[in-house]
Amino acid sequence: MKTIHRPLLILLSAIVILTACSTQQQATGSPTAVTDAVTSRNYTFVATSVFPTEDSRFNPRLLLPNASNLYQLTSRYDVRVTSDSVIAYLPFFGRSYTAPMDPTKGGIKFTSTKFDYKKTQRKSNYEIEITPQDNTEVRSLYLTVSPSGFASLRVLSVNKTPISFNGNVEAN
């Protein structure tokens, strides 16, 4: 019985280690490619996990000591930034204060061609604030990008609670 468990355990450990290594290689990009993409405003933020913001008064699960609000995304959700447009296709989990008339209009989906774009650099990270002028739902997007391409995005909406995403930045 012991001889069967040991090879199975070694095989499973090898699979986990190889999967972690391949995910790490896919996620990181060269610092110059990320810097060039962010500087030229030609990149895509690809969300891999989401942190919905909920009020603990309405969600008793948040009062548990080790409750986690991190949810892994299984589909592709992204924000594409170019010099003349911002296209967002993101999910939304949380409290919405107004319901859309069309049920297919859920989530955070918009295309903006008139927006303010402010980029600052703190230490080695880029902090980007995007404020759409031609969208009445989303107030602003705050994106923090590391030199390796890891990024976090915080979306502030007019009629929804704030929501945060973690992911990667890819050059278009």
UniProtKB/TrEMBL annotation:
<protein>
    <submittedName>
        <fullName>DUF4251 domain-containing protein</fullName>
    </submittedName>
</protein>
<dbReference type="Pfam" id="PF14059">
    <property type="entry name" value="DUF4251"/>
</dbReference>
<keyword id="KW-0732">Signal</keyword>
<dbReference type="InterPro" id="IPR025347">
    <property type="entry name" value="DUF4251"/>
</dbReference>
<feature type="signal peptide">
    <location>
        <begin position="1"/>
        <end position="27"/>
    </location>
</feature>
